[in-house]
Each structure stands twice: as C-alpha cells, then as structure tokens.
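Board notes (copied after class):
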Amino acid sequence: MRLKLFRAAGMADAMAQVRADMGADALILNTRKVPGGIEITAALEPDAEPVLAEPGEIAAMPEAGRLAALAWHGVPRDLHAALAHGDLETAIADTLAFGAIPLDPNEPPVMLTGSPGAGKTLTTVRLATRLVMAGAAPLVITTDGKRAGATEQLAAFTRLLGVPLLVASHPVSLARALMQRSEGAPVLIDTAGADPRESSQAEELRGLVATAGAHLALVLPAGLDPAEAAELAVAYAECGATCLIATRLDLAHRLGGVIAAAAASHLPLTEAGIGPGAADGLVSFTPSLLAERLRRSKGTLHAS
C-alpha cells in the first residue's frame, strides 16, 4: 500500500491533490485541521499504478499506520487526532486519565460495581489478596444476594485468605456490616451486577454508595462495543464512580471499548486484569501498558 500526506488551504483543494496524484481509487485514512488549512492522509492499494515515494511520504507512514491500528482497535474517531502524533505513550497520557485505587487503611471503603459478569467478584478477590500479601487484613462485604452462588464463590476465597466476609444485601444491613470494621482495616465491597441506565438500578447503587461513603470503582470488561462501553461508563460516573478497572485484557484483543469508556467518562484507568490468577492477575494500568497492547495488536505501530 502506498501512503501519502496532502496539505492544502481547504478540503476541496486537498481532495483535488489526492485525485490528481493518486487517482479515484485512493483511500482516505484520516483528515484533520492544521495551521493554515487541512491535512489528508491517503492510501493506494498495491494493484494501482506505482509511484516512487518522496521523502515527505516516508515521514508520514508511521502516522498512517498508527491511524490504521487505532481504527482496528475501534478507538472512536474523535480521539484519532490526539493519539496519532508524537510518542504514543505521551499521547495516551495526555488524552486519558490514569490513577490508583485508594486502598490505604484509613481510606473510605472501595465498592466495586459493573455489569453482570464484568469480573467484580474476581477483582475483589485479587485486591483482597494484594492487601493480605502486603500484611493488611481487609474486611470483605458482598451486597450480591441475587446471583446464585455469588456469596459461596467469594466465601471460598476469603476462607483461603483468612479474612472476614459479611453479607449485606441492602443499605441497612450494609451500615451494620461496616460497624464491624477494625481500626485501620481496608474495606472491599462487592456488589450485584447493575445497569445504571435503568433509573431504579441507578438509585439502588447510589443508595449503597451513600450508606458506605465509599469510593465507587467501575469494573469494565475489555472487548465491549466502544459506543456501549462509553455509554455505560458515563452512566456509572453519574452514579458516583471515580475510577475504572479494566478486566479481560488477557482475552480481548481490541481495546477500543476501554479507551472509549475512559475518554467519555473521564474516569482514571487504575488496574488491568491480565490473567486468571488471584495473586498476579491484576496490574497497574499505565500509559506504557496501553501503548504496548496497542502495538502488540498492530504491527504498523511498532516503530511509532
């Protein structure tokens, strides 16, 4: 594929350059406003008439490859311009927010929320395991009294860790459970799957958050449709979510959903689920991790 960058004062002039140089079969990979006009990245399939590349074209090729990779991942088009230029890790850090889950002993409880099957319970176990390995003794609470076997699954892990598990399916019982918190003990609260776009479920979630005075962490699986992921993340943010944990990065190849969710909701990315292990299946989500995953899935990004 032959790639070339065109610049002109206006879109009509830029498109005329594309047609004159590459013909009617040229593919438009990207358009963006630049000082003084418009910039277009165009491509021509190999079976078109070959033309020798000019020095300026070679410089444009990494950007075009990055744009193709972003499109492959399903990254929303309105983010392409921000992520297409310069060092990839720097562009990611400038575009998305990153942070850490507040797990210090004197912090408010951390409540995990998300859609059914997002990985909330396993993430709760992973965070509890991390705390135990660091010498802390967290209190684990579940509000999931709806899903068959939910409590038993969590209880099996907490028994192995030697930490208490309490069941509190509504705000009153949750308040009572929180009274059993030992001084300096972190608290993790696993919740039932919810869809905050439904008003009744959103209200129920807000009630739990208010009762616990908790930091609300959204657990979102990678691989979702980007528009759906963004819509969900915004709805959870409106319910009080303050950070985002992305799961299933070991299974999903396309990360557009995670990127779209973080960008639309402005929630900082904190942790990434990268494997099945309870002790080592969760790592800090950083710009370098995201850049590495983008490069791994699309070879044209390796040199960018």
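Comment from the instructor: The chain has eleven helices and eleven strands. The CA atoms of residues 230 and 261 lie 4 Å apart.
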